[in-house]
Design goal:
Layout (H helix, E strand, L loop, with lengths): L4 H8 L41 H12 L4 H17 L6 H20 L12 H19 L11 E2 L16 H7 L7 H9 L9 E3 L1 H12 L3 E6 L6 H12 L1 H9 L1 E4 L2 H4 L3 H6 L2 E4 L3 H6 L4 H21 L3 E4 L22 H14 L3 E9 L26 E4 L12 H22 L8
Parallel strand pairs: 2-8, 3-6, 3-7, 4-5, 4-6
Antiparallel strand pairs: 1-5, 7-8
Helix pairs in contact: 1-14, 1-15, 2-4, 3-4, 3-5, 4-5, 5-7, 9-10, 14-15
Length: 444
């Protein structure tokens, strides 16, 4: 199928190209439950950088780890010792130890605040060690070395362990050999289990539940739903899943069904790869990424065209739900004021999704989605082109609001009105969430 130049242009600029990249933050202070979750930033080197002073990084990690309760400290020390004995390269030690310190501190804060798991059990040091160890094992196996997982094509279906026997990939012996002992691992659940204990779900908010209910009914009836969202954290897919689960199991099922529009970082960053393996993805290269390497430009452009075709086929089949950030990336903190404004929705991106919906001949519904998740895994203050960002995690409240459906009507001459309305709905919902979460200091 041929695509018009306008669609191709939109594909190159598609916002998801910078979505769900790894997990990053510029902070080193633990966020406790309370009315204010302000984060104080300080820059760190990228995950696989060899330029950071190792001694300085270890000092920072040790400073934070000394504040842990004895059980979390012991679990942290044992986990770090195990990591050091299995690292493929010494340059990985400092940033990964920092990541471990962050995670143990976040779950220690969750335990101190009385947060619990979905079954009501307490969050423990043993749980932190288990989740971190498994995540690093997945990253080492599938993000590095001969068993690195390759995302073939322009889309990816979540690896859930094939519990119902319906996933044909699991009948391929070479595929099973690649996954090895993790052939029956549910990578979707693994990603949620890793981030969920760092979310203050008791203090979190889900607004617009009537709109979410309508979206669920529309998907169930074979119609399509597109969530036009702002994007704040590398853990946003897990935020969606855990907050939808908070509403009810049927909404948790919807979250597992969602396809996320994502860029090259989620399929190439070693620690992001295992989380991406558990998600339904449409993989699209940003225009900046395409233009960065002339030798691969044609191949990347071809993949984007394929992604558009696959998305159109999804729409034609019906019953699909897609999450996309039309801004082109994550919201960035204003370093002067500390406020966190929403990045504006891109007109061409929204136009492209509307056009795909119209071409499919299936009813396609568009819902603005406001997200507050910045403190969970804040992005760097400035856009970084490469992979391997610094990994930090915070225990914090989060929030989602599903806004009123924006009717997919009107001709080309008024298409800007659709984008402006969706953008404004997301902004209004964002401010409402920040006020409800007691994070007024972030309101732009």
């Amino acid at each position: 199928m041929k695509f018009s130049n306008s669609i191709f242009s939109a594909a190159l600029l598609l916002s998801g190209s910078r979505s769900l990249q790894a997990f990053t933050t510029p902070s080193s202070s633990v966020v406790q439950r309370g009315p204010s979750n302000a984060v104080s930033p300080s820059p760190f080197a990228a995950l696989f950088s060899t330029t950071e002073d190792k001694a300085e990084t270890e000092t920072k990690s040790q400073t934070q780890s000394t504040a842990l309760p004895p059980d979390f400290q012991a679990a942290r020390d044992q986990s770090v010792a195990a990591l050091r004995s299995s690292l493929p390269a010494p340059s990985l030690e400092a940033p990964l130890v920092h990541f471990m310190d962050e995670y143990f501190a976040a779950l220690s804060a969750a335990a101190a605040a009385g947060a619990t798991n979905p079954d009501g059990s307490p969050i423990t040091a043993r749980q932190a060690a288990k989740e971190m160890t498994e995540t690093l094992q997945y990253g080492m196996k599938y993000g590095l070395g001969p068993s690195k997982f390759t995302f073939a094509g322009a889309s990816h279906k979540a690896l859930r362990g094939n519990p119902d026997g319906a996933d044909e990939r699991y009948s391929d012996e070479s595929f099973l050999a690649l996954l090895g002992p993790h052939a029956r691992t549910d990578f979707y659940a693994a990603g949620c289990n890793f981030f969920r204990p760092a979310m203050d779900l008791e203090g979190s908010l889900v607004l617009g539940r009537d709109n979410l209910a309508r979206a669920l009914d529309q998907v169930r009836s074979g119609e399509n739903v597109v969530f036009l969202a702002n994007h704040q954290s590398e853990a946003d897919p897990q935020v969606v899943s855990c907050l939808f689960e908070k509403v009810g199991p049927e909404y948790g099922d919807l979250a597992a069904h969602v396809t996320y529009v994502a860029g090259h970082k989620v399929t190439t960053d070693p620690l992001a790869i295992p989380f991406s393996m558990g998600r339904n993805l449409l993989c699209i290269h940003s225009k900046k990424h395409i233009d960065a390497d002339p030798d691969t430009k044609s191949a990347k452009s071809a993949q984007n065209m394929k992604a558009m075709n696959e998305m159109l086929q999804m729409f034609k089949t019906g019953g699909c739900a897609i999450w996309v950030a039309p801004s082109g990336g994550r919201d960035r903190r204003n370093v002067e004021t500390g406020k966190i404004p929403i990045a504006p929705f891109d007109q061409k991106t929204v136009d492209m999704f509307r056009l795909m919906g119209n071409k499919s001949k299936k009813p396609t519904h568009f819902y603005p989605m406001s997200m507050v998740s910045y403190d969970l895994c804040p992005p760097p203050d400035f856009v970084e082109a490469g992979v391997g960002e610094q990994r930090n995690v915070r225990f914090t409240k989060i929030g989602i609001k599903v806004g009123e459906e924006v009717p997919n009507v009107g001709g080309a001459e008024k298409r800007h009105l659709f984008t402006e309305r969706a953008d404004q709905e997301a902004r209004d919902g964002y401010v409402e969430l920040l006020k409800g979460l007691g994070m007024d200091q972030y309101i732009p």
